[in-house]
Amino acid sequence: MLILPAIDLRGGQCVRLTQGDYSRERIYDSDPVRVARTFADEGAPWIHVVDLDGAKAGEPANWDAIESIARAVTIPIEVGGGVRSIATAQRLLDLGAARVVVGTKLVQDQNLAREMFEKLGDKIVAGIDARDGKVAVAGWIEQSELTAEGLAQKMASLGAKRIILTDIAQDGMLTGPNLELLDLVSSRVEIPIIHSGGISSLKDLKVLYHEAAQRPEGVIIGRAIYEGCFTAKQAVEFVASFG
Fold first, then answer.
1. Residue 144 scores a pLDDT above 70
2. Which residues form the catalytic set?
């Protein structure tokens, strides 16, 4: 089970939102490159980067910061936020991202989703962000009527190789993972799922590892690291201890 520390970018700074609410922002570091290097030095195998400005606007905005992060570390990064076209996805890949996360556009245009998966394969990750089981889009601002498990099934049928599943209600709340949602979605698809949202302690990682019906391929962790609950190094070593 991989540990993916998160870097959320807004205005070029490393921030965190609570439950995806742009009015509930906290700036943690003005230098996301420094944060990325710390994660890499602590043994994180991946870094998860979100362009929050891009997610809201529908087009990535933190290009320079993303490129700087990719150049500063030797571990792979995945990037999401505002990716609405193959051209945008390819530009992020050209800047150094190893994978690109697409969310809103998958809901809006399934023909494009199929084309993305066909052309870019496992370099495209289907991002499914759910609130009360329903998929949210446009930087989590708009709510759709699609269920998370229904969208997961559809994306898998269109060729998605991987899903990032986020419970918005848990995100940034330090209240623990939503096992019910994870188990529901994982019961409908056979592709790997990366869990995101709610991690508050090393114990939560143990729960995901041992109690999830289908162990997630990875876990994205944000606020717990920034608030000092544990370090990326401690998370990586803790999961490695499970054998």
1. no
2. 8, 129
